[in-house]
Amino acid sequence: MIRLGIALSVLVFMVLWESVAPRRRSSVSKGRRWLINLSVIGVDTLLVLVLVPVTVMHVAIAARTAQWGLFNQITLPPGLVFFLAVLLLDLVIYLQHLMFHAVPLFWRLHMVHHADLDIDTSTGLRFHPVEIVLSIGIKMGAVAALGPPPAAVLLFEILLNGTAMFNHGNVALPQQLDRVLRLLLVTPDMHRVHHSVIIRETNSNFGFSFPWWDRIFGTYRSQPSAGHTGMTIGLSQYRDPARLGFVQLLLLPFSGNPGSYTLNRQGKEPNLK
């Protein structure tokens, strides 16, 4: 309930911010996009409720009770354990994101997220239902392997939800503030590069909460080549909104064209002329 309450608060705040100070103009109907995105999010939620009877927090509590995982086998100061747990769980999400770009089968699922023709807060929640279930399974496995304090897992989940909505937001931050803030968090301008139609930009800036992994592993790109207001959002093979309806998105991984975006198949830059 804590996580849900904070997530809803961040969602309302971001929607209001986007309406007051948008970074980019919409290229397609925002109302239709939001209806489609919310429909996908609704299916995600229902599928998780049906297929996943336990939460990541349940696994964290079970790991602490049964003394599973790394942090239950070593002795470190509680504050350091808490910090390392949040940090390592965020690293898992970075690596998971990288995997969904590297493995063609997983990329097909992840295309649903990237095929959005505009980027805003709703994009940060729009993922194919199968990807959502896989992601939950990966997080549960990481929690069982690490054995982190349940409170650290709760903070990690709150950060992951909140920053996903924040860094996908169509909001304008002063350049100086963005330059400082992206040393600590993934900002909207930093993550927006990842949603560029240009392949080398799509395959950069994989971080969700913390920006350090991209810098450490060499996947950081500061700005899009066309600028934030001039860049094209989405995938080169999906430019027609009529092909990106609710049903089409659910079927996209099984019938769609994956293009040349996967890390193991770097192709030529898309020609949008």
Automatic annotation (TrEMBL):
Native organism: Desulfolithobacter dissulfuricans
Protein name: Sterol desaturase
Pfam family, one: FA_hydroxylase
Listed GO CC annotations: membrane
Record flagged with keyword Transmembrane: yes
Domain Fatty acid hydroxylase: start-end pairs: 82-219
Membrane-traversing stretches: 6-22, 34-61, 81-107
Taxonomic classification: Bacteria, Pseudomonadati, Thermodesulfobacteriota, Desulfobulbia, Desulfobulbales
Record keywords: Membrane, Transmembrane, Transmembrane helix
A GO BP entry: lipid biosynthetic process
Subcellular location: Membrane
GO MF terms, alphabetically ordered: iron ion binding; oxidoreductase activity
